Automatic annotation (TrEMBL):
It is an enzyme of class 3 (hydrolase). It catalyses: Endonucleolytic cleavage to 5'-phosphomonoester. One of its GO terms (molecular function) is nucleic acid binding. Residues 6-138 form the RNase H type-1 domain. This is ribonuclease H. PROSITE patterns: RNASE_H_1 (PS50879). Its EC number is 3.1.26.4. The keyword Metal-binding applies. It comes from the Eukaryota. Belongs to the RNase H family. The keyword S-adenosyl-L-methionine does not apply. GO terms for biological process: DNA replication, removal of RNA primer. InterPro entries: RNase_H, RNaseH-like_sf, RNaseH_domain, RNaseH_sf.
Amino acid sequence: MAQVAERDSSVYFTDGSVDPDSGRTGAAFVTTGGTELSWRTSDNCSTLQTELVAIQHALEHALHRREATVVIHTDSWMGLQALQQPHPKDNVRLITTILGSLQSLGAQGRRVRLNWIPSHVGVRGNEAADVAAKRAASGPSVTMHVPPSLQQLKAQARRAAAHRAHQTHRELEARKRQAAWYAAATDYHPLDATQQQPRADGVVLQRVRLGYCTREELQEDFEGQVCDHCEMHTRRPLVHYLLSCPATAPLRPGPALAAQPAGWGLLSGREGRATLMVRHTPRDVMLGVLRATPPPR
């Protein structure tokens, strides 16, 4: 296919370009009359946004011409679908600007056709628009600012929240032993909410995941307590329960887990090995032991 054209019409081919490596973007249109215009759009625009920008500028260009029919050829099926939404929820400014230009052309008594064409099948106008959009995306500076879409803003908010949560976790791990235990024992993976379980099971699982101290450990004069299951005296009740108590032997079927070479921060080596056991023991095995021999409280 060499070309797509209509007699007595202004014919535009539009395209957008996004460089996934640099985040640079561009939009362009070419006409069958030889006009080519392009814009370096904001970094990290979506492909849909660049395609809509190209359509928007083609329509604005057509407003200053006199042909009775305006034909816009685009390979953006998503762009055409977005323009058909009765109540757009995203890229609202771009879409309403395009719809406004369509209304203005209609008020002039002119006819507009938005036509989808497949990309990279040899349509010269489409290929030329593609080259122009890529060239625009490689430009040094932005020539058209495009506001972030709602989806982009939500993604940015999620990334910012995740980054802040990560910072908070690391700060707590450096100051709070229980936070360091939870990080090592869970890697911040929550319990699977899709697995139905009695509330009591969730309580005992969280007790070992959080590394709770016993009531006696919270006392200022604490010097150790006797294990409820083996009657051994210990200064670290939960660590003893997980690593040494005969009642929890099913948790230790193989060689003892070694501490990570980088160390455990606030945790001792034995505490580190205990958290690894919590982290890597299958849930059903852990629950079986916790139900039969509850952890210290």
